[in-house]
Records
---
Amino acid sequence: LPRVRVDLPDASYAVEIGPRALAKLGPAARRAAPSRRVLLVSDANVYALYGARAVRHLRRSGLAVGVVGLPPGERTKRLATMAALYEAAAESGLDRGGAIVALGGGVVGDLAGFLAATYMRGVPVVQVPTTLLAQVDSSVGGKTGVDLDQGKNLVGAFHQPSAVLADTSTLATLPRREVACGAAELVKTAVLGDAKLFAAIEADVGKLLAAEPRTSARLVAHAVAIKARIVTADEREAGVRAHLNLGHTFGHAIESALGYRRLLHGEAVAIGMVLAGRLALRLGLFSERAAGRVEALLGRLGLPTRLPRGLRSDRIVARMVHDKKARAGRLRFVLPVRLGRVRVVERVSPRALRAVLRAAR
Ligand SMILES: NC(=O)c1ccc[n+]([C@@H]2O[C@H](COP(=O)([O-])OP(=O)(O)OC[C@H]3O[C@@H](n4cnc5c(N)ncnc54)[C@H](O)[C@@H]3O)[C@@H](O)[C@H]2O)c1
């Protein structure tokens, strides 16, 4: 299996990636849970597909397993769910020597991670990501949390996993639209981190969309290595970790202006990356050719590259001003300067912004 290590001052863990990674769940959870108790958190879709297998691996390693199955979807990622999770953990007898297992996409990973960060002031979590987005991005790096009505991810904690098992054979059942969303984060990681990964995605669009497990494993491993490098350099997002927000200033504003309907997160990020590329082009930071390659690749992945009909530029700009990542009233953009390299740009005139948005219809 491809394996990437994440080495942090207070936490060091391996990310195992490949078609048989789930088979390692027993030993990984056993190492995390000296008291041999684990709570498996999943959502109903994922549990129906992979729950029995996961429980079998855990029991075979001598673990007592409690299970919580949550309703699928972003709406589940909120405080009311946390209350239910704390109670389920206590009810199942989970103690300080126990561990949480997160089996699912980013929603499950963020919830179960936050549970692990806070239950009994912190217990270990083993992340078993089953969406491409979670394998490429959310399961690694230790960000956990929930949404509020006022905004996404407003409550949370940093809590690094004790192991990550990204089984790429689970991607076979993922709806195609979700595969494309994960691919958007993969492209993001390539644009901000490594032109070679970008070329590798270009060469394997078909296999990636078909969720071919070995191709997915190779691309996921490459992206995780980039993310690991960034998280190691800046665990708490004081600097370079902000690069991972490429496409997200525009993307979040678009999602929020649409009331979180119509577009999935990865789709909004795809449009956000196109806009970031065009803004960079306008500011003389990025080449026409590279911007064109980014747009073409996102298009081939079946992702949107233009703004949804009827969405007005001034609404998007207003949302951006609201963005929690705007510091001291200033908008910050992560912009590509060439494939594999980005920088943070703070002084962008509203005129430039509107021109870029108008041209993206
Ligand atoms: N912590 C981080 O660093 C970080 C980074 C990026 C995104 N996120 C968060 O991740 C979340 C999005 O994650 P997501 O895109 O994985 O969404 P998700 O967890 O909602 O999963 C998407 C859908 O796919 C289903 N599913 C999952 N695995 C499946 C499989 N193998 N087969 C069939 N169906 C499957 C789920 O039930 C769900 O309906 C957001 O809440 C976002 O804020 C967190």
---
Amino acid sequence: MIVFRLICPDEHDFEGWFRSSADYDRQRKARRVLCPVCGSAKVKKGVMAPRINSGVAAEADRQQAASPGAAEVMGMLRDLRAHIEKHAENVGENLPEEARRIHYGEAKERPIYGQASADDRAELADEGIDVVAIPWVPRHDA
Ligand SMILES: [Zn+2]
């Protein structure tokens, strides 16, 4: 399973669970991905942790079982969090700014993660900055 943070034109922010990225694309094209608040089918992916994600998301795709239980999903999300914390730099609330600096070549290209509001994420997406939102679950030891 893979989780996308999705956003509709009215900026309702919600999570969608899909078997894979391709499954999301298919369902979205068929207008079956609907905003739970207003019912709009014009949803797009929200964004959060830039740069790390094509790799990380691909990994999550490969690891997906036919239909993992909630505990397995939580385990995968914990592993994902650990992976990100190990390999990426936490820029916290500077995420949108730092993502732009990297995108426009003003800062060294590297994996980063942090927090971004729905507005920030929409703006980054409009600028073509490749970022993905993931659910940030508690750690194993939390
Ligand atoms: Zn909506």
